[in-house]
């Protein structure tokens, strides 16, 4: 059984490497780790060496396109992959050290991803989120750009602060566990601190303002009016998602709809304005979409939920998004 898994992983790795034309040896190894980490107990270096001799010079294909195809056939709610770091002076040529390229990773709707950054930092990327950082991962300035939501366990390095940037805001840390929520289409940026200490910064009218967080703090920054609030609260509901737990705490229906869309990759339609006043308090742990919809309907007997599965478009082969319609019973 293990041999079959390894053969399958080597085949996928070979197909991927054949599509890469102008990448350095380091970059190939990093992206190879991304592709096959979803298969357990595979020797990355051994698989890499085996297919390296078969690489052909063909037109490059973006890694994210490949990952999207892989994600389409996965049934697990959490897609786990690892970026293998080879960032050591003895193993990198001077040319590689002087060249800077950019790595961009994303989690589509319905998938949450676990990433290990080149410095060893663990990052969980929520659905409909993406992160961008430099390769090599610069030691003196570990900076990532985030759109969406991420939970991070940062490796401490006093000589190299870790910075998460989003728009005109940033969160700087040395070593800690925290969550940043910064979706472009939402008005608020939220930072929840579990361990350690972080500093939130925002640049407004050429001036920079700072706020420091301690464990248990939740910072909410309003992008529209530029105001920030800092409260000590139970942050579990803000960070539980990275453990595949969805916590609703007096959560309004509109927010529930957004969470379901991200969590399960479906389109949620609220069919009655009165439903927007509904609020839900419950916890879902590793639940399927159908179980969640069933429990929501049981909690409010006067609502009706209809699920319409997505269909494959015969013309372009693409799958239309599944639809969840929530209405009041007549």
Describe, in plain words, how this protein is organized in 3D.
It is built from eight helices and 19 strands. The protein has 330 residues and is of the alpha+beta class. Helix content is 25%, strand content 36%. Strand 3 and strand 4 form a beta hairpin. It starts with a helix and ends with a strand.
Largest sheet data: 14 strands, mixed
Overall structural class, as computed from helix and strand content, comes to: alpha+beta
Low-confidence stretches: 28-45, 53-98
Strand content: 35-45%
Described by the principal axes of the CA atoms, the overall outline is globular
**Distance between the first and last residues' Cα:** 54 Å
Helix content: 10-25%
How many strands? 19
Order of helices and strands: HHHHEHEEEEEEEEEEEEEHEHEEHEE
Tally of helical segments: 8
Radius of gyration: 22 Å
Compute the average pLDDT: 77
Question: What layout of secondary structure does this protein have?
Answer:
Blueprint: H1 2-18, H2 25-36, H3 44-52, H4 63-73, E1 78-80, H5 94-98, E2 101-107, E3 112-116, E4 122-125, E5 129-135, E6 142-153, E7 162-166, E8 169-173, E9 177-182, E10 188-195, E11 198-204, E12 207-213, E13 217-222, E14 228-232, H6 236-239, E15 245-252, H7 253-264, E16 267-270, E17 279-285, H8 289-299, E18 303-308, E19 323-328
Parallel strand pairs: 1-3, 6-7, 16-19
Antiparallel strand pairs: 2-5, 3-4, 4-6, 5-6, 6-9, 7-8, 8-11, 9-10, 10-13, 11-12, 13-14, 15-17, 18-19
């Amino acid at each position: 059984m293990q041999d079959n898994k390894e053969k399958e992983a080597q085949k996928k790795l070979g197909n991927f490497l054949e599509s890469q034309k102008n990448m350095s040896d380091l970059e190939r190894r990093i992206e190879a780790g991304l592709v096959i980490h979803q298969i357990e107990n595979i020797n990355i270096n051994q698989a890499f060496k085996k297919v390296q001799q078969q690489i052909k010079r063909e037109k490059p294909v973006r890694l994210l396109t490949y990952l999207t195809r892989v994600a389409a056939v996965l049934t697990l709610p959490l897609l786990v992959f690892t970026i293998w770091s080879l960032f050591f002076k003895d193993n990198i040529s001077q040319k590689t050290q002087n060249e800077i390229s950019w790595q961009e990773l994303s989690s589509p709707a319905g998938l949450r991803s676990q990433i290990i950054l080149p410095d060893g930092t663990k990052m969980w990327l929520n659905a409909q989120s993406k992160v961008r950082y430099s390769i090599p991962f610069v030691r003196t300035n570990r900076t990532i750009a985030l759109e969406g939501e991420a939970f991070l366990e940062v490796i401490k390095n006093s000589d190299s602060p870790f910075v998460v940037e989003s728009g005109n805001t940033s969160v700087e840390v040395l070593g800690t566990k925290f969550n940043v929520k910064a979706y472009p289409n939402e008005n608020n940026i939220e930072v929840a601190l579990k361990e350690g200490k972080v500093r939130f910064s925002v640049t407004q009218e050429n001036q920079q303002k700072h706020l420091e967080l301690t464990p248990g703090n939740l910072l909410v920054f309003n992008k529209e009016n530029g105001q920030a609030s800092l409260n000590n609260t139970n942050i579990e509901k803000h960070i539980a998602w990275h453990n595949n737990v969805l916590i609703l705490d007096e959560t309004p229906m509109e927010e529930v709809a957004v969470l379901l869309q991200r969590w399960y990759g479906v389109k949620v339609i609220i069919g009655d304005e009165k439903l927007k006043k509904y609020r839900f308090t419950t916890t879902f742990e590793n639940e399927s979409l159908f179980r969640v919809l069933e429990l929501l309907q049981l909690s409010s007997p006067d609502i009706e939920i209809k699920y319409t599965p997505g269909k494959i478009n015969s013309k372009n082969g693409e799958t239309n998004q599944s639809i969840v319609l929530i209405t009041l019973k007549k």
